[in-house]
Design a protein that fits this description.
Elements (H helix, E strand, L loop, with lengths): L6 H14 L4 H13 L3 H14 L4 H13 L3 H14 L4 H13 L3 H14 L4 H13 L3 H8 L6 H6 L13 E9 L4 H7 L3 H5 L2 E7 L5 H4 L5 E5 L10 E4 L3 H4 L18 H15 L4 E6 L9 H4 L15 E5 L9 H6 L12 H8 L4 E5 L2 H9 L3 E5 L13 E2 L2 E8 L7 H18 L14
Parallel strand pairs: 1-2, 1-4, 2-3, 5-6, 5-7, 7-8, 8-10
Antiparallel strand pairs: 9-10
Helix pairs in contact: 1-2, 2-3, 3-4, 4-5, 5-6, 6-7, 6-8, 7-8, 8-9, 11-19, 15-18, 18-19
Length: 455
């Protein structure tokens, strides 16, 4: 039931078993698995430790405890549990991959690479180990090897279940004059916006491009040059010569860090909707300051959301900076942030942001975007709008390591955590940077010409 998206029912069933057999270690551990996926970490840890105390020889329980401790940013303890799982089952690629992930979390890349190779020695066809290797290679700038490993994502169970089944050959970049190429998004919204830059490059080699995407992206991606149509179902693609996943295009084009295409902007807002929001923002919040769009939480369905989202209260000081007009781009506004949202006098535009083309139209009227790692950050970067992005550690591979800029988005500045789970320092630096910017901006406000927001 937990794998069917019914954690509540799974918990009820498991507790019923424990009523019949109190303290049964197998049921106790299973309940720990269930509540961990509901992000009740303290309870999950207690249950797993209770089960392990009764039976310490089950590697899967140590592996799950590793994950719980990882979610709580307790990486030393997590590493110890990962090692115990490997000790109990040294032939498991899954457990060695889990150990490697902790090494990568700790920034210990040499140990991580060695452990991943050990995992692949156990099972050369283990897709999750190949993906962990891909992420580490891409994060460290080893793009050529990273893109090849990244193609293993399609053997992962998560991808297999979620994605359409191509009926034509995969495109290798060959010219297809007069023929149709279907390109399908294959990951989150932000990933799609990052890789959409490749669509005109693909279109230049074929007769026409049809893009498969989700409904909130259709209007925005339809504006990309070379796109014949955007659809939501492969069955509507019509006759086509070849198929390609959007996130495979960097591999097809052999992208290196130095050759990342940056034709900024490659995503644009509708001039009509941009004009509408120009007037609407003046009507709703006035026109007396530097407009700063704000996103502090990502999609809770994202497996990395526990790392990236922050409470709105952590950004309260932004509202106190003279001359700053905060514009919420958050959709939806989390219930836990409603009190602070009202306290800061923010307006909830979420009902008006019906799709990403509408969000783009608002962004086009703003001076700066402040965001966590989110689809809006990618969208703003793709539009060439100055964007300050709060980055968790260990960061998603897209933000690479130890950089305060992004080779993917020239107008973006990164504010990184010094280590996993610590937001105070980057938020403090961001607030101070905005204060310094506003000191200069105050002198130019009359001309409505803010200075550069990039280092």
């Amino acid at each position: 039931m937990i794998n069917q998206g019914k954690p509540g029912e799974a918990e009820t069933a498991c507790r019923a078993v424990l009523q019949e057999a109190p303290g049964l270690p197998e049921a106790t551990a299973l309940l720990g698995f269930i509540v961990a996926r509901m992000r009740r970490l303290a309870e999950a840890e207690s249950l797993l430790r209770e089960a392990i105390a009764k039976r310490s020889d089950v590697p899967q329980w140590h592996f799950e405890l590793r994950n719980v401790l990882r979610y709580d940013f307790r990486l030393d303890e997590s590493l110890a549990e990962a090692w115990e799982a490997v000790r109990l089952d040294p032939a498991s690629a899954q457990f060695r991959n889990g150990l490697a992930q902790i090494y990568f979390d700790r920034g210990e890349y040499d140990q991580g690479y060695g452990t991943i190779l050990d995992a692949l020695a156990c099972d050369p066809e283990h897709p999750e180990s190949h993906l962990s290797l891909a992420h580490a290679l891409l994060a460290s700038g080893n793009f050529r090897a990273g893109w090849a490993e990244y193609e293993w994502r399609f053997r992962s169970k998560i991808f297999i279940k979620a994605l359409p089944k191509p009926i034509r050959p995969y495109w290798n970049g060959m010219p297809l004059p007069g023929r149709r190429l279907v390109i399908s998004t294959d990951q989150g919204f932000g990933d799609s916006f990052q890789f959409a830059r490749y669509i005109p490059m693909a279109a230049a080699r074929v007769g026409e491009v049809v893009v498969i995407c989700r409904p909130p992206q259709i209007q925005l991606l339809s504006r990309i040059p070379g796109v014949r149509a955007c659809i939501t179902d492969l069955k509507r693609a019509g006759d086509h010569a070849a198929f390609c996943w959007l996130a495979s295009l960097p591999y097809v084009f052999g992208t290196e860090v130095s050759t990342i295409p940056t034709p900024i902007p490659y995503l644009t807002a509708s001039p009509v909707r941009r004009a509408y929001w120009r007037g609407e923002l003046v009507r709703r919040i006035g026109d007396n300051g530097v407009r700063v769009g704000l996103v502090w939480a990502g999609n809770i369905e994202n497996t990395a959301d526990w790392r990236r989202s922050i409470p709105l209260a952590a950004l309260r000081e932004l509202a106190a900076i003279q001359g700053v007009q905060l514009v919420s781009l958050q959709k939806p506004v989390p219930d836990t942030d409603r009190d602070v949202f009202a306290e800061l006098g923010l307006q909830d535009f979420s009902a008006d942001l019906t799709d990403f083309s509408e969000t783009a139209a608002v962004i086009a009227n703003l001076d700066l975007i402040v965001s966590v790692d989110s689809a809006v950050a990618h969208l703003a970067g793709a539009m060439g709008v100055p964007t300050w992005t709060l980055i968790y550690e260990p960061a998603d591979w897209r933000w690479m390591t130890r950089r305060e800029d992004s080779p993917w988005y020239p107008t973006m500045r990164l504010f990184r955590q010094p280590c996993a789970g610590q937001w105070d320092e980057p938020i403090g630096r961001l607030i101070e940077a905005l204060r310094q910017y506003m000191q200069v901006a105050q002198k130019e406000m009359a001309a409505r010409k803010p200075p550069s927001l990039n280092p």
